[in-house]
Structures are given as C-alpha cells and as structure tokens.
Amino acid sequence: MPEIHSSVDASLLITWPVPLWVVLLASAACGLFGYWIYRNERGHSPGWLRYLMATIRSLLLLMILWMLTGWSWLLTRSERPDLVLVVDVSDSMATPDGISTPDAAQTISRLDRVRQLLNVSRQQTNRLYERYQVRTYAVAQDVVLLPSSAGSDALIPHTADFSSGLNSQHSRLGDAINRVIDRQTGRSTAAIVLFSDGINTAGTTLTDAGQRARRAGIPIHTVALGDQSVQPDLRVGNVLCEQQVFLGDRVGIEATVIASDVFSAQSKVQLIDVATGAVLDEISVLLNGSASQHEVSLGYVPEKPGQHSLRVVISHHATEKNTENNHWDFPLVVHDQMLRVLLVFAQPSYEFRFLKHFLERSQQRSQQTQAAFQLVSVLQSGDIDYVQQDQFANRWIPTDAKAIEQFDAFIFGPLDTQLIPGTTQQAIVEAVTRGGAGCLFVSGLYDFVNRLEDGPLGDLLPVVSAKPGSTGGEGYLLEPTSLGLSSLPTQWVSPGSGGSIVTDRLPWLQTVLPITEIKPGAQVLAEAVSVDGKSRS
To answer: How far is CA 394 from the centre of its chain?
Structure first.
C-alpha cells in the first residue's frame, strides 16, 4: 500500500450568521466600556492597575461576545491530493532523438530525457511533496506503480527498472490512462502529468481517454517528447533473384537499398551465405541526402547443389537505432540433374547441329561422367535412316500428353506446324504455362513468327509480329539491356573475368529480324546494335 500523507488545517467556524462589521463594532464597544468604567471609578488605585483591570474586563466581555456569536476554531486533518506522473516506457521511448549531422553526434533517448526533466533539486522535491502525494506510474501495455522517491533529488528513482513486469513492445497509452483513472477513484487528484512521445499502437485512443478524464474532473497535462525528423535508417527494401537455378549458372541478385536521413555515408552491401557466414559478393555504395534509394547488383556462382539460404546485408550507420531491417534473407535452390529436352527443326541447319552436339556432350558439373541433358531431337523433313542411326532422334514429336509433360525444356527452330497435331501443340503450351517447362524459339526467318501465330504454339511467342530482316553494313553486336544484365539467360561472362560482360567477343550478326511489337509482360533482354551505332533492333 502506498504511504498516505496528510496535513492539519485550521479554520474559524461561525454558527450565528452575524455580519462581521457588527461583531467588530461590538468588540470595540466592549473595550471602550471596560476602559470607561475604570477610568471614572473613585479610589486611590494607581493608573497602571486601572488599565490592567480594564483590559481584563474587556477580554471577559469579548469572550462573552465570542460565545454568543457561536464562533469556534476548528483543526481538521485532510489527505493531500495526488499528483500523478505517468511515464511512457514503450520501445519507442528508447529512440535517441537527433539527426545524423556532425552537430548532432550526442543524442539521448526519450526516456533518459524524462529522467533529466524530473531530476530537480531536493528543495523543489520537498516543496512538491508538502503539497501533493506524488504517485508515478510506468506504462506501456501494462501499468506499474513505481516506489515513492520522497526525500531524494528526483521525482523518480534513478535506478528505476521501467521494463520490470512490463510488455514494452506495444504502446497502449489510452488504456493505461483509463486504468490510472480507475485507480484514482475515490482519491483527490490534482492532475495527471503524461510524459510520452504520443505513439499509441493499440487500444483506446488518447482522445477518448482525455474525454473520460474530463468527465472524472481530472486535468491532464502532457509533456511531449521526441523529434519530428526521420530517424537515421538504412534498410534493404527488396531483393529480386531467381528461386531455382542450375549448378554452374551465375546467380544475379538485384537489391534495393533505402537510406533515410543519412548524410554522406559509405556503406557496404554484402551477399552472405547464412549457413557458413561466407561473403559471396560485396559492393560499396555512397549514401547522401535526407532520403535516397539505390539499386545494387550482386552475384555469385554456386559450387554445390541443394537448398541454400542467402542474405543481403547493408552495414549499419553509426547513429542508426533500428538494425533489424538491415538484411534480407531469401532461399535459393540449386539443381544438378539431368534435363529432358525436345529439339524440333524442320530440316538440318547450323543452329540444329550446334545445339544437338552441345546438348549431347554437356555433362553435369558434380558428376562429370553423367550427361546433363537427355535429348530427343526431331527433324521433320529428315531422312528415315537418320532416325535409325541416331539414338537421340525421333521421327515425330510424341503425341501423348503425359510424354510431353516429362520434358523440362522445348527448343523450336524453323518448323512446319501442320505436322504437329493441335492436341500436341496444346499439350506443349500447358507444359510451359502450367508445368513450368522452358521454351526457346530459334529462327532468323521473318515468316516463322507469322506461321506460328495461327496455331496454339503462337501463344508462347513473346512477340506479335515481325518484318523482313535487314542487313547491316558491317554487322550487328548483341547488347544486353539493363534488365538483361541481371537475368540468367543473358549473363554472358568470361571464366575468371569476375563476371565481366564479353559481348564484344561474340561473333557479329549479319542479319537481324526486327520485331514490330511485343506482347504485354514480355521482357527485352538484349538488343542488336549496328557496329556503327546508327541503328538498334
């Protein structure tokens, strides 16, 4: 139970309602009457004795007058009113105020600022305790009454553990004020003084709590704490990365780094393997201005298959309080398995032979003796003997929908769509759009697009139409777009080059197929730029 402080008050009680001027006039008359009697009395008494007797008689007459008027001097003992101090101790009160400029290197938390405000002199504290009973509450989601600090130099103990027994992760200021009002029921309350930054995360609003205090006749005085400026903060806003890749692929990660109220800071953005803690890639970014956003590109080549847990981390700022948003975790699955590929061309060509030999000879990186692809090749106008001589060749495309579903990727060159049944084309479309299989079209003929548009396979084309190819003077170079630089299909790198683009070492294109329109959602990963730089397709 809290200690109860009381005081003794003296008051004059008048039971006979006589005007004061009448009492004063009667008192003066009594005094003059006593003096007049002894002044005119005969005898030989000395003068001082006469004055003494006159004074005694006047006092007796005044006493009779006091009793007749019913005056009484009352002494009453009363409890001093409560002065309630409510201190917000939620997590937001631990925030240091100030911005990250050189002039604001010294910062203190809002809760420490409350301690400074209540750290008054012993004389001021005693004067306050003489008039009020000071009750201090620490509030967050709960309400705790702190021990009295009467006689000390502060209104709250220096060693008060504000978080003891409290859930400081939530700030329910409105509910806390209501509970304090409930505890003050039946007690005289001078006022409630609230020390808070005003952040109320749940429960009753501060407006509703203030209206209840008004109905209870309890005034509330607020000491506002905090800074309206944005706190220094570095965070990883978003990360874009392929969720599933194959062993040997270079994994590209696009991360968005956001800086708020950070001035002229050099920070490092790292890609870390969570399991081993190894730094896979690192880049430095220069942050300046009150608010900025930076796009950074990271990457690495996985060395083993399986489930990987990666993390993008930005180094924290010296004045940054919240560091929980300085990293972004994401999973990555690295496959090293045999892929079933269906290669379809109408007739033999350089592209067909190159792709066929590449897919036949590729081996898995983890097991050099095992092929990386299980190839099924189809030449629609090929010789029948070719099928008998090549173990990977088929005369026709499989027509069974279940057989189509077994393929992981489809590669189509110039072909005759009339030789592919409509149900088979539809099964291929279903395998790509719903089953997640890959699809690649290889052709330099402008009418290839127009011929596919008439069948179901046309739904897989990323373009709407094309026009006849054009020939450059000296040729064309492939140039990845900004999107292509971060996409696996167009990450052309040289072994040991650290990921540098080597498009200048690729052979020139002599003829390009200009695309007049692409479908919504299609992405352009590379463009053909003439060697002289005058045209781009």
So the answer is: 57
